[in-house]
User: Which sequence fits this backbone?
């Protein structure tokens, strides 16, 4: 911005000798008023929370409690494993959905219809109580047990979250695969590449650009959705926070604590997403956007350079 | 390129076999009949130009040659072998995808819209098929790719992504990519139609150089100058049939058929 101004000024000033414009800028009074109102409301809210009967000191006391840290670990574990199930399942479902075989594509359609059309919480309870339908699980000589023994809370949570996620991921992957230009497939085929190789080397890397941003959303969503599995007896961050709250007599404080931890985790995930997106953007934009670290470095150098500190 | 030349010289009887032979080729998209019985023959080492108004079926015919489109009737041979089918006695058997892919290795194709892989650099584009399909070592493929990029005048752009190259440069990379598989036949589908006028010359120079090295080329083009100077045979197609064929100089300067005359009067 400043650069263009400078060069334009250097070129224009000597040539025309025209007088630089000095005008009174338009005053946007509306903006001042709305800013004052917004700040006022914000202060009011913060004040209300500060005056409320909330024992804020309880939060730092328990922030690194070993139960909370265990909960954080389990929440992350659940998020990662469910997303793995969701992504692998989603790719399989998307390829099935796009296949020319009407049987596989209808099965995929039906799966997505069911798992996207019912609430996760309901699905979690269904998995948990499937023992009413299947009393035993019997995999021949390999494994045989009561359903209730087999279906541990962790497995219930993973199946409930992962299989639900697969339905969403399937639609995201399908959109990504369809977004790649057909000419790419033709070019790969004309070079003698088979179906699998075309998909792996040419189509999927390009589809990833479309797939990654919504998948990042899904990961963040998943991290928050894991709080639902408290309902099927799997203890994670939210469940531990609730327990501590009930025992220590500071239930609301512990909700704030849990919220803070969720915020920290989702913020870290957002940073990760930025870098993954940047990786898959290579070749599509002429210049990759700088990483935050590069921005900081550039900022520091541009400040220091005029002073002659870096030379 | 010399490889391809040697191939034809090593096996003299092959010279008598047409590189591409079409016998009554028909192709329909739904109810629309695009090719209505094409007969033609491309000899080894020949530059064969296909011209005609848009919608005349010339691009479709080109795509049939490497089985990107399936023909509905007639017979199409490349180097003496049926395209897309295997004949046993009276019966035709469709080839498996793997077998079709195998045959496409020997046929290079250059597209109107380049279709370079945007997530790979120029040299990676050229190396991709030799490494993935022919299982060449990366270093070997890289060396060969560099030679090819030099040949199309883009050695200094090896590390650039397609989005960082001009249209003409992209198309020359695409030609290098096709040549990396050492094809015996090259198909060009309007290779200069998507280019700015001042970039057309660079691409045509590369094609002219390729023709001089003895490559068999089938070229769908609107560049009449190129057809006249470089072409060995020329076919004028309209509405799915071959209207007129012969040596480019004869057809272009002295068209016999009225449709050819009216087409040429518009484009020349």
Assistant:
């Amino acid at each position: 911005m400043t650069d263009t101004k400078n060069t334009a000024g250097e070129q224009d000033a000597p040539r025309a000798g025209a007088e630089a414009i000095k005008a009174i800028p338009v005053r946007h009074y509306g903006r001042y008023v709305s800013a004052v109102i917004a700040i006022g409301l914000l202060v009011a809210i913060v004040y209300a929370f500060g005056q409320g009967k909330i024992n804020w000191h309880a939060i730092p006391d328990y922030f690194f409690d070993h139960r909370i840290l265990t909960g954080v670990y389990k929440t992350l574990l659940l998020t990662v494993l469910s997303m793995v199930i969701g992504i692998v399942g989603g790719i399989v479902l998307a390829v099935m959905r796009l296949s020319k075989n009407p049987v596989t594509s209808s099965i995929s359609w039906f799966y997505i219809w069911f798992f996207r059309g019912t609430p996760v919480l309901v699905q979690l309870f269904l998995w948990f109580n499937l023992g009413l339908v299947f009393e035993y699980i019997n995999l021949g000589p390999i494994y045989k047990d009561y359903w209730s023994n087999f279906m541990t809370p962790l497995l219930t949570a993973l199946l409930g979250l992962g299989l639900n996620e697969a339905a969403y991921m399937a639609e995201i992957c399908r959109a990504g695969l369809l977004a790649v230009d057909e000419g790419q497939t033709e070019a790969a085929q004309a070079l003698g590449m088979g179906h699998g190789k075309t998909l792996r080397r040419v189509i999927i890397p390009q589809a990833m650009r479309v797939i990654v941003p919504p998948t990042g959303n899904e990961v963040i969503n998943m991290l928050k959705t894991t709080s639902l599995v408290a309902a099927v007896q799997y203890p994670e961050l939210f469940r531990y926070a609730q327990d501590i709250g009930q025992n220590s007599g500071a239930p609301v404080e512990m909700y704030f604590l849990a919220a803070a931890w969720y915020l920290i985790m989702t913020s870290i995930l957002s940073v990760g997403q930025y870098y993954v997106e940047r990786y898959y953007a290579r070749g599509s934009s002429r210049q990759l956007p700088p990483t935050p670290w590069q921005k900081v470095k550039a900022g520091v150098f541009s400040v220091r350079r005029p002073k002659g500190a870096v030379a | 390129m010399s490889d391809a030349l040697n191939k034809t010289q090593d096996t003299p009887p092959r010279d008598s076999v047409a590189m591409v032979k079409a016998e009554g080729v028909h192709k329909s998209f739904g109810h629309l009949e695009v090719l209505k019985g094409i007969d033609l023959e491309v000899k080894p080492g020949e530059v064969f130009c296909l011209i005609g108004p848009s919608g005349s079926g010339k691009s479709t015919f080109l795509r049939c040659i490497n089985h990107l489109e399936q023909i509905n009737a007639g017979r199409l041979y490349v180097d003496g072998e049926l395209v897309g089918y295997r004949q046993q006695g009276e019966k035709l058997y469709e080839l498996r995808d793997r077998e079709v892919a195998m045959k496409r290795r020997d046929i290079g194709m250059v597209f109107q819209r380049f279709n370079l892989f945007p997530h790979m650099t120029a040299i990676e584009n050229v190396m991709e098929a030799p490494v993935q399909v022919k299982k060449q070592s990366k270093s070997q493929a890289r060396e060969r790719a560099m030679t090819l990029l030099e040949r199309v005048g883009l050695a200094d752009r090896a590390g650039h992504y397609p989005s960082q190259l001009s249209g003409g440069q992209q198309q020359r990379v695409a030609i290098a990519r096709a040549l990396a598989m050492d094809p015996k036949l090259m198909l060009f589908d309007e290779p200069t139609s998507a280019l700015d006028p001042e970039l057309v010359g660079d691409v045509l120079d590369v094609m002219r150089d390729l023709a001089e090295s003895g490559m068999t080329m089938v070229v769908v083009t609107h560049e009449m100058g190129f057809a006249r100077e470089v072409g060995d045979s020329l076919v004028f197609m309209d509405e799915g049939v071959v209207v007129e064929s012969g040596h480019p100089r004869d057809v272009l300067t002295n068209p016999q058929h009225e449709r050819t005359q009216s087409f040429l009067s518009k484009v020349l």
